[in-house]
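Running log. JK asked me to keep both predictions on one page so they can be read side by side. First protein, sequence followed by its tokens:
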Amino acid sequence: MSFHEIRFPANLSFGSVGGPERRTEVVTLANGFEERNTPWEHSRRRYDAGIAMRSLDDLETLIAFFEARRGQLHAFRWKDWADYKSAPPSEDPAYTDQVIGWGDGARTEWQLIKTYRSGDQTYDRPIRKPVEGTVTIGLKGDPLVENTHYSYDHTTGLVTFVTAPEVGAEITAGYEFDVPVRFDADRIHTSVSSFQAGDAPNVPVVEVRV
């Protein structure tokens, strides 16, 4: 799959609608009980950027971005304004935000994750597209120094330690991140309502696995 390491203009995604979806297979048994299963380990997000188009300049930017991605052909980064950082929406990311693993004395590479909690249940979401320059890492509650203690790949979300963390050492991370997506249609319909304003009623994008 071809991926362009470029973000859809954030001012155009602001105001868009969308969020996560799951695929659940539900079978109703003869006795009325249900069996439920899912073939998906991770959720998939969908968005519609059409609502965020506010002017003809916005439409021109959208069309240029769409054409440069060749429609659905090339995936790209998307900022989900409702969920784009390791910290709560009202706070700035910090190196203590998310636990991404525990040392075993040998392993040096860890995937960034974000944990969602509700009651006793949790879901660990892999973060594949952190925003460059925003990732901070902690070890046993202390902040580490990038390029001295660790490095990270902003195209994969992998964190690599210079020295393997010791057994049982808690590894934490803070970051901002994008969602890897592609356009979910090979056409865009635009309507010019006036000289100053335009309308793009449906610009669907869908998350891709990377």
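And the second, directly underneath as requested:
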Amino acid sequence: MNDPTAGRHARRGLNRRAFLAAAGLTAAGAAIATTAQGWAGAKKAAGTFRVPVEDVRHTRTWMAWPDRTAIWGGDLSGVQANIALIARTIAKYEPVIMCANSDSADKARSMCGSTVTVIDSIPVDDCWMRDTGPVFRTDGAGGLDTVGLSFNGWGDKQAHAKDALVAERIASYVEVPFTRADFVGEGGAIEQDGAGTLMATRSSLVNKNRNPGMSESQLETAMCDAYGASKVIWFDGVYGQDITDDHVDATSRFLAPGKALVQMPLASDNDAYAKDARRQHQILSASTTGTGSAMTVEKLQGADYTKIRSTNKGFLAAYANYYVCNGAVISAHFGDKAADEAAKATLARLYPDRVIEQLDIDSLGTGGGGIHCVTQQQPVA
């Protein structure tokens, strides 16, 4: 998520991925996202299914291997090394399946090592599994199914003929029912607390590049139906300044039902993303959950962009874009030593029973995304 953003929350302009339309982006390719039928006839699952909060026990983590120079440029070594590092780290705690194209699967196996399972039966365009992968749901009684969010390349900004089919193909691979949601979106655009409450930015979803003609009320109904929720907490977000139109998972996250976290900017930051983050904190602090409970909101201090390692203007330094797996929280460090240490301490306090792993993923950050953006959890049924 996330994301293949170009400067999303990075304050200093857009990078090379901002308005990329890679070769192969056609109307036919985009149409794949809305016409495919799901496993088991795409029959809708019962309303008792819902997307659980992310810290439940996982069966495995799903990831995708980047290999397209049309998207990442001629040197793929940095982003591939980052993806391999994330996969190997998660694999210390739970199984990881990496989807790779057949002509790059051997390289993925070599870089990821024996602890990561690489398959070449689910082809991909890019590495953003949070957005392209299926959203898994459970029913609390041993049932598991999936929902696809009709991925369309973040509003037809990038080629996605393969990625549009990833969600359905993963559902088929694990042999669980698949349905397609009644709206277009991405996993990084929606956060869920597992107990009926969602949060999202209008900029990512109430947007003609995803859902033309749909009102906010109609979207809310479709989102709640897909996620098994009853309420959406909306933030305005930031339109048109990055490829995702400001995904929520780089700024605000659910920790548990009634408990959320917001990454806060420096007091001196006053760009659109900083204003958006402060407003997200204000809205969450005044919100209630789908069951009417008050919301507790924690703060996670962001880095000083003048002190991080990267000088790329589109770099995303999102501590909040962490991934919770079995027994660990996989996060990032960016070179602002004080902020890195403070973020790790905050996460350790919020997840006291998990190991906090901080990784250098600067190449991925240069692409505008983070660890949550490239992972998708499959919860235990």
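Observation for JK regarding the second prediction: Residues 27-35+52-379 form a domain with the L-arginine/glycine Amidinotransferase; Chain A fold (CATH 3.75.10.10).
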